[in-house]
Amino acid sequence: MADKRFFDRAGPFSISEIAERSGAEPAPGVNGNDILSDVSPLDTATADDLTFLDNTKYLDALADSRAGACIMHAKNADRAPAGMSLLFSDAPYKAYALAAQAFYPRGSGDALISPAASIDPSATSGSGTSIGPGTCIGASVEIGNDCQIAANVVIGDGVTLGDGCRVGANVSISHSIIGNRVHLYPGVRIGQDGFGFAPDPAGHVKVPQLGRVIIHDDVEIGANSCVDRGSGPDTVIGEGCWIDNLVQVAHNVQLGRGCILVAQSGVAGSSVLGDFVVLGGQVAVSGHLKIGAGAQIAGQSGVVSDVEAGAILGGTPAQPIRDWHRQSIMLAKMVKEKRTRK
């Protein structure tokens, strides 16, 4: 059960209501009027809780679970304990996520503007928007409806935010056009100077960064990540991208729709990622590259050349994942043989 000090729980909900919200289908014989009060993992759930099974690694935990109901693949039904109500889904984790959102909906907060915020008279904000203490909002800023701006945020002149945005504490935003329902976690930096300079033995010369950051709808950017503004072209984050903590997106980078960038990954200047590209943790992408739609790059890989759409790569330099695994196995065998000869 989530800590009531930090999370407000809705419900309870009947199994029929949960099925409607999650898209899961109750198994034959399940009573749709049975009531569930919360969500919980397999090993801690009680008879009033909803849980889920997606990874078959946890089939033993399912067998021992005391949950009242479980969302799962139909093929695993025979592993569930007697008396547990089952809801079937081809995507159990997604269905569970939708059900959990019903129990713990995103809070709208109180639409209050702190007297300790500094807001330029030319800035505007929509209805239902809250602004926390210590926040500084510059000239001609436009903030949409139902936004939550936390404490100590700095929003530079001319920035626009759409409706339903959430901006965490200590975020700074400049030179940016931001869409609807964008969530910036604490410490995010959006729109700072890109790393652009002309090298010179007498002293490097700064190249003015004259572009913007364009963030489309439904983007999430994790804590302490940085997105630099463009040097002339804009830096663009496509609709539905999810960026983890401690990620660097350099100037002029373009991300397509639905890209996922995992923690500590970095994309160098002017590289273009197609729709639904996935970068694992600590992946480094060199500048001026094109990574095709749907490509997946394994964690700690280094990408130094263009990547075809749909490719799955690993290693440094990044190569087809099977080749990388073969090389790793061969290297391990060579090391083992050398030790044996000694």
Can you put this structure into words, describing what you see?
- The protein folds into two domains: 13-103, Udp-n-acetylmuramoylalanyl-d-glutamate--2,6- Diaminopimelate Ligase, Chain: A, domain 1 (3-Layer(aba) Sandwich); 171-342, Hexapeptide repeat proteins (UDP N-Acetylglucosamine Acyltransferase, domain 1), CATH 2.160.10.
- 14% of the residues lie in helices and 26% in strands.
- It is built from four helices and 39 strands.
- The strands form six sheets. Strands 10-13-16-19-24-27-30-33-36-38-39 form an eleven-stranded mixed β-sheet, covered by helices on one side. A ten-stranded parallel β-sheet has the order 8-11-14-17-20-25-28-31-34-37, with no helix packed on it. A nine-stranded parallel β-sheet has the order 9-12-15-18-23-26-29-32-35, with no helix packed on it.
Write a short abstract of this structure:
The chain has 342 residues and is of the alpha/beta class. Helices cover 14% and strands 26% of the residues. Helix 1 (15-22) crosses helix 3 (92-103).
Shape: flat
The largest pleated sheet is described as: 11 strands, mixed
Q: Structural class, from secondary structure content?
A: alpha/beta
Strand order of the largest sheet: 10-13-16-19-24-27-30-33-36-38-39
By DSSP (H or I, 4+ residues per run), the number of helices equals 4
CATH class of the largest domain: Mainly Beta
